[in-house]
Predict the structure.
Amino acid sequence: MAFTGSDVITLVRALINDFDSTTWTDAVCLPFISEGIRDMHTNHPEVRLKTDGTLRDYADLAAVGNAVDLDDQYKTALAEWLCFRYFSGDAGDTRDAGRATVHLGLYDKFFLPPGMK
């Protein structure tokens, strides 16, 4: 089963308490979703491997309703990346900087081998 950019945004809205999208619109989220996918392709190349053994090519997500070309298991990691970027945007608030660090840590932890999590 595939997931869309909208699925990730819905998950993130619950985590950042922005259910009515007044703080972060879908249009603002879209480039950060693409940035997260690009980070995965660059720093965690295992995400590129398809079940048939071929490799995925990186492509920016054109619209939030489009399918993300990653396995479903990476939806949560992508949501953590978006939360990291959201809280990084409020750099003047040290509490938000701390929350950004927590979400980046959860994103990175997702890619650790099972025995190291």
